[in-house]
Amino acid sequence: MKKYTIDYSHSTIGFSVRHMMISQIHGTFESYNAELTVLDIEKIQDAKVSFSIIVASVSTKNFDRDVHLVSPDFFDADVYPKIHFESTYIEKLEDKKFAIHGYLTIKNMTKPVIFTTIYTGSGMNPWAQEVYGFQAKSKIDRRDFNLVYNALLETGGVLISDEIDIVVDLEVNPV
Question: What is the pLDDT of residue 152?
Answer without folding.
Answer: 58
